[in-house]
């Protein structure tokens, strides 16, 4: 089985050396850069399975690199974990809203970082090859990790993909934020109910582009459901 490919975007050389050492020991092929412009080039060359992205880097900022990767159809589904010294809640929410799937504040344990990346990759990997899900005009190919609405491809980040998959498996059913945390994030202690709102909003924006109707119903004091009659 081929090694997983990791793109590390970090301009602190000593930290990059430390992170590279731990991921290579865990069986990853690591490509690294400290420059945002170069990262956007390397992502097409390397086709990484996951991107570790520092917020404060040379050239284009990490947050802008994240935004651009999410806008590209070829990289919209690549898991992105942000590394940063910014620990404020507002910064964490901004990172998530921009497209990051996880967020690690410096200083951090390299072993924990490897475990967090492995957890993200496990959540992203489809469980059943060839599985097809559909509701209204939304179609999901789980194995190919593709979503279409009215025949048009919908680029989704890994977390939004998992969230939509859960809704597609239970159309019409209302899920509380806590139930969604359990189903989609597996009770990750670093994820809270507000994060669910962020990802639901991102999923809505992707599904409802070009003026399409909103398929996600907000049920006050209860949660969310996939409901075309909502």
What's the CATH first level of the largest domain? Alpha Beta
Q: What is the helix content? A: 40-55%
Distance between the termini: 45 Å
Describe the biggest sheet?
Answer: 5 strands, parallel
Order of helices and strands: EHEHEHEHEHEEEEHHHEE
- Under the CATH scheme, the architecture of the largest domain is 3-Layer(aba) Sandwich
CATH topology of the largest domain: Rossmann fold
Structural class: alpha/beta
Classify the beta-strand content into a percent band. Answer: 15-25%
Mean pLDDT: 85
Compute the gyration radius: what is it? 18 Å
Instruction: Count the beta strands.
Output: 11
**Which geometry do the CA atoms define?**
globular
Strand order of the biggest β-sheet: 2-1-3-4-5
- CATH superfamily assignment of the largest domain? Response regulator
Number of domains: 2
Number of helices: 8
Please mark out the parts with pLDDT under 50 across 5 or more consecutive residues, or reply none.
126-130
